[in-house]
Amino acid sequence: MKKLGLVAAAVLAAFTFVGCGGKKSSSDSISIMFQGSDLEQSALKDCAERFTEKTGIKVELMYTPHDSYTSKLASFIKNKNVPDIISIDGPVLANLAWSGVIQSVEPYIDPAIIKDMTPSNVAQCTYPADNKLYAISYADSTVLLYCNKTYLNKVGARIPTSVDDAWTAEEFDDILTKLAALPEVTWPLDLMWSWNIAGSEWGTYGFYETLASGGSDIINRDTWVAEGTLNSDASVNVMKYFQKWGTNGWIVPKSAGENTLYNDKRQTAIAWNGNWNYLTCEAAMGDEVIALPLPNFGQGTRTPNATWIWGISATSKNPDKAGQFLNYMMTDTTFLDVQETNACYPALNKFAERCEVYMDPTKMAIAYEQSNYAISRPNHPAYPTITLAFSDAFEAILNGADIKTELTKAAAKIDEDIKDNDGYPPFGKK
Known about the structure:
This protein is of the alpha/beta class. Helix content is 41%, strand content 13%.
């Protein structure tokens, strides 16, 4: 996945090191390990310089390319040399908190900032075992449908005006059927499957929410058992739609790349895509593109959330100074202005008010409305196994494998991992 930069589940196993030491920092400096685009790098550098000018605290920025970030962080953990602040992929928070790599940030963050966080942002930054914040973020994420209005009008498709008005699964299926018949449409639907390469989180992030929309989930979040939930009839019914679209040849193949919606040929009618790609689509398509909510599979529209967030290492020598920086970053209007130009999805209410693209009903207002319907990926130490098992099952299902069988295999892998780790205490405690 692109800007979200989600991590490889296989490497995440390296995160379960306990009792790690902190990176050596002088008393008047902090170290920050992060990944991100060129724009994000520049914005953070400028923010750090302003912070140093204001406080006298030096900031060592340790940029690491996305593709090597996870392995580099795992190396720091193994060598007991974790930077003061680390950028964390949202769903990995529970694993890092459980294994003692990060600490609660609540003692160091201004309560006014915490109060300003959106509910979905609070959810992605909370460790369920003790219900405390272990990270902070100015950003969140969502997935929605980018549609070619010309093609929708040609097939007489209804245009939803709110999340509550989203297409039903049956209605969406009918629209895809009609779009597939248009001679100018090569594929009615782009699931951005070219993103689902080894080490990507897209296969889970992009589609786990459809299970919740259908009345199911990846795992029972009360018992932390996948059997009976992931492979339930409700899950099977949702996956039947995706399998139909895949086996009918309606989904853009990996080999076609990621711009089939907005390239010169306009080969795709609808893209299942993230908020981070809106500005690119708009620049290429203008008024021809429209953002709509994800389909309702029976129990209402649900959307994913979570992106890269900021935590303080458990063994930081300067947690107070690290907290000072995070407070500054979250209130630095110049820094937030730069994020807005990147269509950064607002996770602070005050930031949302500044983001015109998310307030404009002709642009991304529907996406921001979806934040009220966000469901986080399972915030559990076993998440590395959960995501790999689901993503593998989902791809097999798209390619025509038996749905019940694949979901049952995935559920067994998840439950086995949790059992092998004694329920990941305190999650396993009753």
